Task: structure prediction
Amino acid sequence: MQGQDKKIDSFTKLHAWQASHRLAIKVFLTLEGLPKNDSLRNQAERSALSITSNIAEGFGRQSLADKKHFYIMARGSAYELQNQLLLAKDIAKINKSHFEELAALSLDSTKLLHGLIRSLSKNADS
Result:
């Protein structure tokens, strides 16, 4: 079970981090054609980076409550990124095929974060 960090020795082995890392890479590569000072590009990149960073920070925390807090923050950043991607598509900063690919990656990341959070909740109840 992913929530049991005792059995996993690195945050990079968490499926939620792996999926979120793939998403972050794709966000950065997709948006690199936009100007560096584009506010939507900057915010989407920050949100994507925040997902993986919060998972990593949560992994390093000792208490289940702290871990869960950071994993919930990561999930919030994932939803923030989904909103930014919708806007980028709607104002034609990214095309439909890029949006669909990013949306699918984002959905994978969010589902895995839900599972990670749920597993911590079950562990806390045990």
Observations:
- Residues 1-5 have pLDDT under 50 and may be disordered.
- The chain has one domain: 10-125.
- The domain at 10-125 is CATH 1.20.1440.60 (de novo design (two linked rop proteins)).
